Give the backbone structure.
Amino acid sequence: MHEQLALIFRALAFAARRHRDQRRKDVQATPYINHPIELAELLINDGEITDVNVIAAAILHDTVEDTETTIAELENMFGSAIAGIVGEVTDDKSLSKAERKRLQIEHAATRSDAAKLVKLADKICNLRDMLSFPPADWPQERIRAYFDWAHAVIQQVRGVHPQLERLFDAEYARKP
Ligand code: ZN
Protein backbone atom coordinates (compact mmCIF):
# COMPACT_ATOMS: atom_id res chain seq x y z
CA MET A 1 0.00 0.00 0.00
CA HIS A 2 2.66 2.51 1.00
CA GLU A 3 4.80 1.56 -1.98
CA GLN A 4 1.85 2.04 -4.35
CA LEU A 5 0.91 5.41 -2.90
CA ALA A 6 4.53 6.49 -3.07
CA LEU A 7 4.68 5.57 -6.76
CA ILE A 8 1.44 7.40 -7.56
CA PHE A 9 2.53 10.55 -5.77
CA ARG A 10 5.93 10.47 -7.46
CA ALA A 11 4.10 10.31 -10.77
CA LEU A 12 1.80 13.18 -9.74
CA ALA A 13 4.70 15.37 -8.62
CA PHE A 14 6.62 14.61 -11.81
CA ALA A 15 3.68 15.26 -14.16
CA ALA A 16 2.73 18.47 -12.32
CA ARG A 17 6.28 19.79 -12.75
CA ARG A 18 6.46 18.84 -16.42
CA HIS A 19 3.06 20.33 -17.28
CA ARG A 20 3.56 23.38 -15.04
CA ASP A 21 3.43 25.97 -17.84
CA GLN A 22 0.57 24.37 -19.79
CA ARG A 23 -3.13 25.06 -19.73
CA ARG A 24 -6.07 23.11 -21.17
CA LYS A 25 -7.75 24.53 -24.28
CA ASP A 26 -11.00 25.36 -22.45
CA VAL A 27 -12.19 28.93 -21.90
CA GLN A 28 -11.14 28.78 -18.26
CA ALA A 29 -7.59 27.75 -19.21
CA THR A 30 -7.59 25.05 -16.54
CA PRO A 31 -4.08 23.98 -15.42
CA TYR A 32 -3.05 21.03 -17.60
CA ILE A 33 -2.37 18.72 -14.64
CA ASN A 34 -6.12 18.60 -13.88
CA HIS A 35 -6.52 16.43 -17.00
CA PRO A 36 -4.22 13.52 -15.99
CA ILE A 37 -5.59 13.72 -12.45
CA GLU A 38 -9.12 13.33 -13.88
CA LEU A 39 -8.05 10.23 -15.83
CA ALA A 40 -6.64 8.62 -12.69
CA GLU A 41 -9.72 9.57 -10.69
CA LEU A 42 -12.02 8.06 -13.32
CA LEU A 43 -10.01 4.84 -13.56
CA ILE A 44 -9.98 4.40 -9.77
CA ASN A 45 -13.53 5.48 -8.90
CA ASP A 46 -15.56 4.57 -11.98
CA GLY A 47 -13.37 1.82 -13.41
CA GLU A 48 -12.40 0.32 -10.05
CA ILE A 49 -8.91 -0.18 -11.46
CA THR A 50 -6.38 -1.25 -8.84
CA ASP A 51 -3.36 -1.81 -11.12
CA VAL A 52 -0.95 0.88 -9.97
CA ASN A 53 0.92 0.78 -13.30
CA VAL A 54 -2.25 1.78 -15.15
CA ILE A 55 -2.92 4.62 -12.69
CA ALA A 56 0.65 5.94 -12.86
CA ALA A 57 0.68 5.66 -16.67
CA ALA A 58 -2.60 7.62 -16.81
CA ILE A 59 -1.02 10.37 -14.70
CA LEU A 60 2.04 10.44 -16.98
CA HIS A 61 0.21 9.81 -20.27
CA ASP A 62 0.77 13.24 -21.86
CA THR A 63 4.26 13.99 -20.52
CA VAL A 64 6.11 12.57 -23.52
CA GLU A 65 3.73 13.92 -26.16
CA ASP A 66 3.35 17.40 -24.70
CA THR A 67 6.51 18.14 -22.66
CA GLU A 68 10.25 17.59 -22.98
CA THR A 69 9.99 14.20 -21.23
CA THR A 70 11.40 11.09 -22.94
CA ILE A 71 10.38 7.45 -22.61
CA ALA A 72 13.93 6.66 -21.41
CA GLU A 73 13.51 9.14 -18.58
CA LEU A 74 10.18 7.58 -17.54
CA GLU A 75 11.77 4.14 -17.72
CA ASN A 76 14.50 5.33 -15.39
CA MET A 77 12.15 6.88 -12.87
CA PHE A 78 9.10 4.60 -13.03
CA GLY A 79 10.26 1.36 -14.63
CA SER A 80 9.69 -0.21 -18.03
CA ALA A 81 6.08 -1.35 -17.46
CA ILE A 82 4.78 2.20 -16.85
CA ALA A 83 7.05 3.75 -19.50
CA GLY A 84 5.83 1.10 -21.95
CA ILE A 85 2.16 1.98 -21.40
CA VAL A 86 2.91 5.70 -21.84
CA GLY A 87 4.82 4.86 -25.04
CA GLU A 88 1.81 2.98 -26.37
CA VAL A 89 -0.49 5.97 -25.95
CA THR A 90 2.00 8.56 -27.24
CA ASP A 91 1.51 9.92 -30.77
CA ASP A 92 4.53 10.43 -33.04
CA LYS A 93 4.74 14.21 -33.23
CA SER A 94 6.91 14.10 -36.35
CA LEU A 95 3.76 13.08 -38.26
CA SER A 96 1.00 15.42 -39.40
CA LYS A 97 -2.00 15.85 -37.14
CA ALA A 98 -4.26 14.07 -39.66
CA GLU A 99 -1.86 11.14 -39.86
CA ARG A 100 -1.56 10.88 -36.07
CA LYS A 101 -5.36 10.83 -35.79
CA ARG A 102 -5.63 8.14 -38.43
CA LEU A 103 -2.96 6.02 -36.74
CA GLN A 104 -4.72 6.24 -33.37
CA ILE A 105 -7.70 4.49 -34.95
CA GLU A 106 -5.50 2.01 -36.78
CA HIS A 107 -3.31 1.08 -33.79
CA ALA A 108 -5.85 1.14 -30.93
CA ALA A 109 -6.88 -2.51 -31.30
CA THR A 110 -3.28 -3.75 -31.12
CA ARG A 111 -2.47 -2.00 -27.83
CA SER A 112 -2.16 -3.73 -24.44
CA ASP A 113 -5.18 -3.77 -22.13
CA ALA A 114 -3.40 -1.28 -19.84
CA ALA A 115 -2.90 1.15 -22.74
CA LYS A 116 -6.51 0.65 -23.89
CA LEU A 117 -7.73 1.59 -20.40
CA VAL A 118 -5.68 4.80 -20.42
CA LYS A 119 -6.96 5.59 -23.93
CA LEU A 120 -10.56 4.97 -22.88
CA ALA A 121 -10.22 7.21 -19.81
CA ASP A 122 -8.52 9.90 -21.92
CA LYS A 123 -11.34 9.98 -24.46
CA ILE A 124 -14.07 10.01 -21.76
CA CYS A 125 -12.38 12.94 -20.01
CA ASN A 126 -11.82 14.81 -23.26
CA LEU A 127 -15.48 14.50 -24.30
CA ARG A 128 -16.57 15.64 -20.83
CA ASP A 129 -14.24 18.64 -21.03
CA MET A 130 -15.55 19.55 -24.49
CA LEU A 131 -19.12 19.38 -23.22
CA SER A 132 -18.62 21.41 -20.06
CA PHE A 133 -15.96 23.84 -21.28
CA PRO A 134 -15.70 23.84 -25.08
CA PRO A 135 -12.41 25.19 -26.44
CA ALA A 136 -12.93 28.91 -26.93
CA ASP A 137 -12.06 28.96 -30.64
CA TRP A 138 -13.64 25.68 -31.80
CA PRO A 139 -16.73 25.91 -34.02
CA GLN A 140 -19.42 23.29 -33.35
CA GLU A 141 -18.48 21.35 -36.50
CA ARG A 142 -14.96 20.81 -35.18
CA ILE A 143 -16.28 19.61 -31.82
CA ARG A 144 -18.63 17.19 -33.60
CA ALA A 145 -15.75 15.88 -35.72
CA TYR A 146 -13.70 15.37 -32.55
CA PHE A 147 -16.51 13.32 -30.99
CA ASP A 148 -16.74 11.11 -34.09
CA TRP A 149 -13.00 10.58 -34.21
CA ALA A 150 -12.89 9.66 -30.48
CA HIS A 151 -15.76 7.24 -31.14
CA ALA A 152 -13.85 5.60 -34.00
CA VAL A 153 -10.82 5.10 -31.71
CA ILE A 154 -12.94 3.61 -28.90
CA GLN A 155 -14.68 1.22 -31.32
CA GLN A 156 -11.25 -0.44 -31.61
CA VAL A 157 -10.79 -1.09 -27.88
CA ARG A 158 -14.29 -2.46 -27.12
CA GLY A 159 -14.33 -5.34 -24.68
CA VAL A 160 -11.52 -4.11 -22.46
CA HIS A 161 -13.81 -2.55 -19.83
CA PRO A 162 -17.59 -2.57 -20.54
CA GLN A 163 -18.34 -0.31 -17.56
CA LEU A 164 -16.03 2.45 -18.80
CA GLU A 165 -17.18 1.88 -22.38
CA ARG A 166 -20.71 2.63 -21.22
CA LEU A 167 -19.47 5.88 -19.69
CA PHE A 168 -17.86 6.74 -23.00
CA ASP A 169 -21.10 5.98 -24.85
CA ALA A 170 -23.04 8.21 -22.42
CA GLU A 171 -20.73 11.14 -23.19
CA TYR A 172 -20.77 10.43 -26.93
CA ALA A 173 -24.59 10.46 -26.86
CA ARG A 174 -24.34 14.11 -25.74
CA LYS A 175 -22.52 15.11 -28.93
CA PRO A 176 -23.55 18.71 -29.67
ZN1 ZN B 1 -4.81 13.22 -22.48
In short: The radius of gyration is 15 Å.
